[in-house]
Write a structure and sequence with these properties.
The protein is of the alpha/beta class. It has 10 helices and 16 strands.
Length: 376
């Protein structure tokens, strides 16, 4: 790795553009290159953020020896092969979810990352959202008591999204629900059983031979008496967008709001029944970050002068998670902390969804997580 700040290249400039100013503002990192297939978009983003090194070819970018790490934000079908290529080129890798679309590709990534000795981190937003951090803080400080159950849902209408989305099995994009449940418990998945419900339109179902409108799964956890429940929908199911986790303890529980942008609901045991629930405004966890990137917890994309540049924003910060993701990745590469999720955790979270869909297609048959998804 080069001396000085971590030199990062960002590939994919839709969602990926949100991370450019964060890397540039981070005291131990800099964004030195960008990659986008469309030259016009490449130049538009590069000019807005003052980045000179621009590539329309991913493999050409990997040959740039000045780059230490690659942050991949490209379409889902490209994640596995681009990750493998970057690792083989000697780059550390941060990759948006999911890690891959097959168990075999997850295995290849784990084996390659461990062989070449490079950091791999799947950039799962929910486990760095302010809501998750608030719940985890309560749990770690003992305020929730004994953890009894976790559940999560991710419901989103993907009609009209890019051409790799139509008909996608719901659980093939499940890390936004699997990740927070497993992250909260501190355990990895041991097995999963899933059932499908309802049916999407025939033309959508035919694309992946995946008929279900909703897939819901129970996940057993290694070394834990807690079971997680998750459900996921992508098409033909009426629901406002929601990525959520609910956490139930013996003393307190916290539930994600049913309507987006409403307060969390905390339930406190041993109160009069009508006083058990209370709405709580989730605090900001910007204090966990280096001061120059703390403002990015509010979401949005900024140009060189610090002005909001909405033409490049897509996720609005995903609960303030983006600067936390960048900082965690930089710290992991620097050796100051373990990546979260690291390569095996990332494989575990991703394979839960892949195997859950297989289970649903087999009427709920339990599926064991492979050994490579457990700690070495």
């Amino acid at each position: 790795m080069s001396q000085g700040p971590l030199r990062v290249a960002v590939a994919g400039l839709g969602f990926g553009a949100e991370f450019l100013p964060i890397y540039r503002a981070h005291p131990d990192a800099e964004c030195v290159a960008i990659c986008q297939r469309t030259q016009a978009k490449l130049d538009e983003v590069g000019d807005a953020h003052g980045i000179a090194a621009r590539y329309t070819d991913f493999d050409a970018m990997l040959r740039d020896d000045s780059i230490d790490a690659v942050h991949i934000n490209t379409p889902i079908p490209a994640h596995a092969e681009q990750t493998l290529a970057a690792l083989e080129a000697g780059k550390h890798v941060a990759c948006t979810v999911p890690m891959a679309t097959s168990v075999e590709d997850c295995r290849r990534i784990v084996e390659t990352a461990e062989r070449v000795g490079k950091v791999y981190m799947m950039m799962e937003t929910v486990v760095y959202s302010r809501e998750y951090l608030y719940m985890k803080d309560l749990l770690d400080r003992g305020e929730l008591g004994r953890l009894q159950f976790v559940q999560a849902s991710h419901m989103q209408d993907m009609e009209g999204w890019p051409d790799y989305w139509p008909g996608l099995p719901p659980m093939h994009y499940a890390t936004h629900v699997v990740g927070p449940c497993l992250g909260m418990t501190g355990a990895e998945a041991d097995s999963v059983s899933c059932h499908g419900s309802g049916r999407i339109a025939d033309d959508l179902a035919a694309i992946h031979d995946a008929p279900f409108a909703v897939e819901s799964a129970h996940i057993t956890l290694r070394g834990s008496d807690v079971v997680a429940r998750v459900h996921r929908s992508l098409f033909d199911t009426a629901r406002q967008y929601r990525e959520s986790i609910d956490v139930y303890g013996s003393k307190q529980a916290v539930e994600w709001p049913l309507i987006e942008h409403r307060p969390l609901v905390k339930h406190v045991a041993k109160r009069p029944e009508q006083e058990i629930p209370e709405e709580v405004e989730c605090p900001d966890f910007a204090h966990l970050l280096p001061e120059p990137i703390q403002p990015f917890t509010t979401g949005g994309v900024y140009d060189l002068e610090g002005n909001t540049h909405l033409s490049f924003t897509q996720g609005g910060g995903h609960g303030g998670s983006h600067p936390h993701l960048v900082h965690a990745f930089v710290e992991a590469v620097r050796g100051h902390r373990r990546a979260f999720p690291d390569v095996r955790q990332s494989a575990n979270w991703t394979c839960v969804g892949i195997l859950a869909h297989e289970s649903a297609m087999e009427g709920g048959a339990p599926k064991a997580l492979p050994d490579f998804t457990h700690p070495a």
